[in-house]
Amino acid sequence: MTSIKTKIGRRAFIKNTSLASGGLVLGFSWLNSCKPKVGLDMAAKELSKEWFELNGYLKIGENGLVTILSPNPEAGQNVKTSMPMIIADELDVDWKDVMVEQAPLDTGAFTRQFIGGSQALRQGWTGLRMAGASARQMLKEAAAQVWKVPADEIKTSGGMLSHEGSGKSATYGEMASMAATMQVPEEVQLKEKNEFTIIGTSQKNVDGMNIVTGKPLFGIDTHQEGMLIAMIVHPPAFGLQLKSIDDSEVRSMPGIRDVFKVKVFNDDYVKTFFDTRTYNEVAVIVGDSTWQVMQAKKALKIECEPIQSSTETRDRFGTTWEQHTPKGLENTEDHYAQMRSRTEKGGEVRRKDGNPEQAFAKAAKVIERTYTAPFLAHNCMEPMNFFANVKDGKAELIGPLQKPEFTEQTLSARTGIPLENIDIKMTRLGGGYGRRSYAHWLVEAALISQRMEAPIKLIYTREDDMTDGIYRPTYHAKLRAALDADNNLIAYHVNVGGVPECPLYENRFPAGAVDHYLAEGWTIDSNITVGSFRAPSSNFMACAEQSFLDEVAEVAGKDPIDFRLELLDRAINKPMEGVTNDYDPARYAGVLKLVKEKSEWGNQDAKTSRGVAAYFCHNSYAAQVLDIVMEDGKPKVQKVTCAVDCGIVVNPDAATNLAEGGIVDGIGNALFGELTFKEGMPTKKNFDTYQMIRMQEAPKEIEVHFVKNNIDPTGLGEPTFPPIFPALANAIYQATGKRLYEQPFLKNWAI
Amino acid sequence: MCLNFVSLFPSNSDIFMPSITIMAKLNLKINGEVKEVDVDPSTPVLWVLRDHLNLVGTKYGCGIAQCGACTVHLDGTATRSCMLTVSMVGNSEITTIEGLSENGDHPVQKAWLDVDVPQCGYCQAGQIMTAAALLDKNPNPSDEEIEMAMNGNICRCGTYLRIKKAVKIASENS
Ligand code: FES
Ligand code: FES
């Protein structure tokens, strides 16, 4: 039996908040003390230094219906279904008797809800179980009192309490009000993992019906009486700032109420990690309807001026850092040229094992390759938007965002409205992928509403969404490998950087699997704003590393899977002294073995070409085999076989859907994803030029296999995304004999 | 409170209320009802639905007929409502996701629930409307025909395989 404390010191995680109305209501909130173990991605890594807190509540009505307020925003990872499943399982109720609602951001004692870094389930797991188990315990104690029998003789199942000795039984509903008078237990028993009845079963998306019938679930659907529509006009190029606006034509246009400038952050404000904003000052047009404002937007003339270079202090959860923003209008070709020459200077050495210089010098073969990738735009299908109604010192905000807890503080700092007067209601997110962590549009919406003294909905057009972005950075990696005379990998060297961020994870594979290892990183300043993007950094490193290892395996004359397994064997059987690696080599090898078996590796038919890749990120492991056939000289992805180890799978069909999504999205970004800049201006503004994957390019078939184990759940929103890039590159090589070093693949793919 | 706005102009919006508005009263047949709207005739149907009729199931994704999020039926044909000006509709019947079925029981909607297609869900109304129009015209589409018909609808979450599967199930059940 696992038991768990519901209190640490004076801090109680579960609170009885039952009202007079009958039934049992437990509020829950907990700190997750999990240390930033290893391998968390950037934002999560920073955050983990803080304590995590989640909150929600569960209510058991006298009719036996259970309502669970799901604590995290829903962006399509299905946490709104899977998190309540965990509670319901420990509570021991039938899933059909459970209703799920989205918890609002509660500005009281219980806060800290966010999505990002595939952390929702991982962070929530224990606390959600504790909440369900506490309620079950209180119901048992209530029944014990009524029936005058010992509580530990009472059994629960499917929302029923029963006592064998006395033959008594009751529904949860019957005991709910009584249970509300019980003390919250200080320690509760959790189920053994083999006792789960809901966890591990496939349950349908709780919002499915609302989605397929077009119900207003999204922020952009928000409507309130008297609401005005607002849009922004931003400078056309990075490196420019707004100087003045000429609204002479616009003011008299139909339905236009006002035109003005909004400054998102005050000059003296110290921006936090998620306070990134491209253009701190933007023009705003407010009007009666979207179309009228869109017309005015086209007519508005703005004058811009070059920015000056600046250095500002940013606050990363208590630690400050200096962010340098250079002036100038940047160009993509220059970025690539700068990265090339920066590479030659070498970077900051972040890890060095053994004597790599010597190993390379005496190697029988040295392989050196360079990989690049462009900036990427998030392109969430729901463009950025937020509703705001700021009145009488209070702010009501409705919309999609990933880090409400942090954005709320930013808004409070900007407007002076105290936190308790800020009410953020989270809507479903029409895609997030990291972009909605930087919720400057919430602040903009609030400032616009405050000025208009009216409820407003701020909408970014697709063009604004794409050209005023917080992008995935552009990267450049030089990788070197040394083989000895027996074709063993004896040294590995990664030299990687980006504009303006470095994607290096120095403690990841093959670190720990090779005696001589060197990892160095560098950055080049830029005024192009960047931020988290599905599997930050991993989304590039996987492709560089796994394409490279494929080539190294070939030079070594080894099968690409066997070659990786050999390295992992080395990490398992001969762990190196005094180093820490992010990954568990046995679990890493596990997914490779599973994908080898399930894909029947080595048995493909003559016209099929296959590529393999594996990667570890967000505490999970994924390996993929991708099959293509050539049709009219073009590769068509036929099938992807994917093996994932993300610990216990709470909702298998939903998890499969998410894994499939990562794969399809990854193939799309690998083939087409690219944002380039000319004189600071993004060269793509909408989907006519920014190519997105469509059904015709998606694989015909995807098979997802989960490693079965009893490890607490780890992330799944991101881990299937990075390895599909190199799996595709490696398959294309098998089909065409051409190695791909530059993304997007379509660009250098002269077939 | 926050007084950091920089406005070059007086903010009394009444002064700037439009003097020459080019509005027109139009009758639209939407989901089996006639609705009167008073809008600029150049307004795309998408915004008439969303802003004026509070039918927000039809989504804005690109505004240039590239993503399919705004798909409605115009006399049964899948049409991108973001490029269809309201003046072009005339007597044609518009059906939106809200009007596809009374209770979410159109075979396509049922299949979508069956397969549990959506992730974020934002693109799905458009996907469903495109699929429903396809099956109306071609009750038994081949894989290639499904791909052709659905290719105008983008899903960043990558649910294409499930969409295809749901279209096939709907085709078998209708
Ligand atoms: S919004 Fe109409 S096709 Fe994208
Ligand atoms: S389900 Fe998210 S865009 Fe399609």
UniProtKB/TrEMBL annotation, chain A:
**Highest taxon of the lineage:** Bacteria
> Which stretches make up the Aldehyde oxidase/xanthine dehydrogenase a/b hammerhead domain?
213-308
The lineage, from the top, is: Bacteria, Pseudomonadati, Bacteroidota, Flavobacteriia, Flavobacteriales
Matching entries from Gene3D superfamilies are given as: Aldehyde oxidase/xanthine dehydrogenase, a/b hammerhead, Aldehyde oxidase/xanthine dehydrogenase, molybdopterin binding domain
The GO terms this record gives for MF are: oxidoreductase activity
Q: What SUPFAM superfamilies does the database record attribute to this sequence?
A: Molybdenum cofactor-binding domain
**Organism expressing this protein natively:** Flagellimonas olearia
Q: What is this protein called?
A: Molybdopterin-dependent oxidoreductase
